[in-house]
Amino acid sequence: MSPADIICKKRDGVELSDEELSWFLSSYMQGGVAEEQMSAFAMAVVFQGMSERELNTWTRLYVESGEVLTWETGGRPLVDKHSTGGVGDKVTLVLTPLAVACGLAVPQLSGRGLGHTGGTLDKLDAIKGWRSEITREEMQEQMRVVGGMIVSASTEIATADKRLYALRDVTGTVESIPLIAASIMGKKIAEGTSGLVLDVKVGKGAFMKTLEDGRDLAETMCRIGQANGVRTLAALTSMDQPLGRSAGNGVEVLEALECLNGGGPADLRELTLVLAEQMLRVGGVQGVDPEKVLSSGEAMHVFEEIAKAQGCKLPLDVAQSSFTSELLAERDGYVHNIDAMTVGVAAWRTGAGRARKEDEVQKGAGVVWEVGVGDYVRKGQVLARSYSDDSLMAAESCAALSDAFDINAEVPQHEAKMLLSLVE
Fold this sequence. Notes:
Elements lengths: L2 H9 L6 H13 L4 H14 L3 H13 L14 E5 L7 H11 L4 E5 L9 H5 L11 H10 L2 E5 L6 H11 L7 H14 L4 E8 L8 H17 L3 E8 L7 E3 L1 H11 L5 H18 L6 H7 L1 H12 L13 E6 L4 E6 L1 H13 L13 E4 L6 E2 L4 E7 L2 H11 L3 E4 L10 E5 L1
Parallel strand pairs: 1-4, 2-3, 4-5
Antiparallel strand pairs: 5-13, 6-9, 7-11, 8-10, 8-12, 9-11
Helix pairs in contact: 1-3, 2-4, 4-9, 5-11, 5-12, 5-14, 9-10, 15-16
């Protein structure tokens, strides 16, 4: 087979055989297909897409390129959750212990952030002692004893995807629903989970800007999951506005702990409970009310057990930044919108995010907004605060936040809607 011939066939919209796809990817991993050739192939997929069979084969090849994990759960249904990423999305920190408290086993393998969307592991690093990198033996013991974990994804899982993702990131070929779907589902299938709930974000602060694209991605991933024996459901959720009242690292952990203690912003609680209900549905667990479990403190107890197993001491010590800068309202009026992308960039400016994978992040950094959509504010009232270990970065972040708030005298006519639809 010839790399150029396969690239040209895909460029021209010709469906590739399983043998051609397998040869091309394995040759790439072994050095027989050059980086520029794989880049050209990925660009051809961006324009021509993949057939259902091609996509299932490509995903299977991702799975087979690394290790497939198995877990001892003591009879608990094994169900995981994945979010496509958003601003202020600390749901994993609340949902994982909640799902475990409801009777599920949750092997949450997470990643770090890049750009305006935060990474779960970066947030958890704000807790003193937290270890995201644990051995396979420790993972197995934690899943058996505690029932859940939030750890770094193993480099041995879906290794072909990791290499190809790095290439796509620098060649303008990330924006492809087949390649996105295969990347996400390849890792989740290799995780060994039997059920999966997807949180597909849609809106200004999400990767998928339109409901149509979000639904296409959700339906594609659900079909891949079902084809590989993983019962998969998806929730399309809004990311026109940031989730909760904080975006960053330590600030999001504090908000998640507030939610685990029975409080927290209404939208964070709402989304967490919707996803918990879907996880229980996928796992076949009946007769459990996740709202009662969350309010009872059981989920907080599980989170503390997970934290202790991963190196923390109680009470949990969460990093906080040295400098604060405040954004004040310039006029009276109602908050009509809080732009998620602008908030995400402002959080990144505090030092909470990274521009390159090798960059360090500040553990306590981030932004907190004191008002929500629909609230009435007075001139001079605090709208938001930026937190950083660098006073200049805090001030620059706060200045960037000023563009996030749409305030005018008219009463908002529509309430923000969190759940857009369910897909299965």
